[in-house]
Specification:
The chain is built from no helices and six strands. By secondary structure, the chain is mainly beta.
Amino acid sequence: SSGINAEWSLRPGVAGQSLDQSTGCQACPADQWSLAANAASTCTACPAGKGVAAGSGTSQSACTWKWSLAANAGSTCTACPAGKGVAAGSGTSQSACTWSKLLFPKNWRDRRGS
């Protein structure tokens, strides 16, 4: 015997990967996650309304609030939570929603100088 084992098996990958029996470990697609030692050929979908970049889904908690950006294939933006807002073009994440414009009645005037 030559001492070389011709048999081999694929081992599960690290978190954020699935195991393809023919090609080995593959990064989970966007909006999916897996734990370390995932021996399945698929990853788990993030909860509704949450997402993660391809290969970055190392646990369900890695799935964070999913934002829709107007620049993404003509989709619409996601509204900030009630009472919060963001400057036009600056809404890159929910944490960017920090303020809300105060709306004054049309007859409001600045009386500081009166």
